[in-house]
Every structure is written in structure tokens, then in C-alpha cells.
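Hi W., the adenosine-5'-triphosphate complex you wanted:
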Amino acid sequence: MTLLALEGLTASYGPVPALFGVDLSLGEGEVLALMGRNGMGKTTTVKAICRMIPSQGGLRFDGQDLHRRASHQAARLGIGLVPEGRRCFADLTVAENLMAAARRGPWTMERVQALFPRLGERSAQRAATLSGGEQQMLAIGRALMTNPRLLILDEATEGLAPIVRQEIWTAIAELKRETGLAILLIDKSLRELTAVADRAVILARGRTVWSGEMRTLPPEISHRYVGV
Ligand code: ATP
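Structure:
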């Protein structure tokens, strides 16, 4: 079943248009890569989905019109966002950060700590003192604690050391394998995206220019629109 559907979505920052027609659909349990060069509208699309900026056109989640919902309501419907820049509460401990996000469901503190053992080891540590990779794990853990039906990861491996990036990719693969979670992924690593994503949507200048199964993505399209 289709969980998230965008049709001809447009959005702007004040008077400046940024999205001109984004089409995207994501089924239950599916992993979708949202790709495109810098500044092509990936984060803006995520902000529109999460109701952080106004948008127009088709925007439905689980059959409901998201345009009728505020951002906290979108979260309550089951959209869990790990935003660019891995935001956590710096002065709270790891455990407090996780508890503050908790909503009923299969994801508990224990389960998050099983996915990211480092968070268990550091549960009493203040988030501000975590490494970048640990903060990213905490940001993902916080999103999981909301027990979402859709997890959105915006540049989750950006700026991390290769070994930590690998830990994050392993966790994403585990989420795909062991849960029915739908995942929308934005990342610069085509190789890693290819390994985990079922389908891809490519944006250029605020529009969908290609969508299809990840394994059918023609090299000339990724070269032209993703830059690899
Ligand atoms: P990146 O990979 O660099 O994060 P992106 O594909 O996520 O790129 P967006 O951040 O969605 O791109 O940006 C799309 C367009 O909207 C760009 O032209 C950008 O300059 C513009 N834009 C983004 N954020 C704002 C903002 N807060 N105010 C005004 N314009 C913005």
C-alpha cells in the first residue's frame, strides 16, 4: 500500500519558489532514495512532508491530506524525521533524549540501544559531549523512539568518519531487514544507497526528473543528475 504520495508538489521560501513539481510515492516497508545535486530541493521536499514549510499540490500520508496537518500532527501520524545536522537536546543525557521522544510502540530504549550499543554505553552522558557519529545515532534513536511508520533520514552520514558511516549504514540495513519500517533516505553515497534502496527519485531544480527501481537507474542519469 502507498504510504506517502507527493503529486506535483510545489513550495517556496517566502516569495522565492524552491519546488516546482515533485512527484514521489513510497510504499509500506519500502526504502526510497531521494537524490539530486546540491540545492535541487531534497531537504525542502522533506520540510514540506514534515509540514515545516507551506506547500501546494498533492501531499498524502496513509491516505490523509497532510496539507490539513501541522508539523506536530504529521509526527503523530507516524512521520519520524532525522533532520540534517543531527539535532538533539545538548544538555540532556542520552537516556533523557531518548525518553523525551518516546511514544508507545515496539521501539523502546532497550531496542534502540540494541541497534546502537554505543548509546547504551553512554546513556548517562550529556548529548553535547558525544562524538558526531554518536550524536547521529542518538538522532536516529530519537526518531525511532517516536515509533514512526516512515523514517526520514536527511544526510545521516554527512561529515562522519568512514567507520562510523559504516555503522550507520549497517543499522539502516538492519532496520530494513528486521522491521516493516518505510524509509526515505537522502545521502550523497550512491554506492551505499544502491545497496539498501528499493527505488529512487531524482530531483533537479525542484522537480522530479527520474523515478524507478534503484537497480534500473541508468548510469547516464546518475551521472547527469547526481554527479557520479
Ligand atoms: P543539499 O544537498 O545542498 O542539502 P538540497 O537538494 O537539500 O541540497 P534544498 O536545501 O532543498 O536542496 O534547497 C533547494 C533550494 O531552496 C535552493 O535553491 C536553496 O538555496 C533554497 N533554500 C533552501 N533553504 C532555504 C531557506 N531557508 N530560505 C531560502 N531559500 C532556501
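Residues 13, 16, 18, 36, 38-44 surround adenosine-5'-triphosphate (CB under 6 Å).

W.
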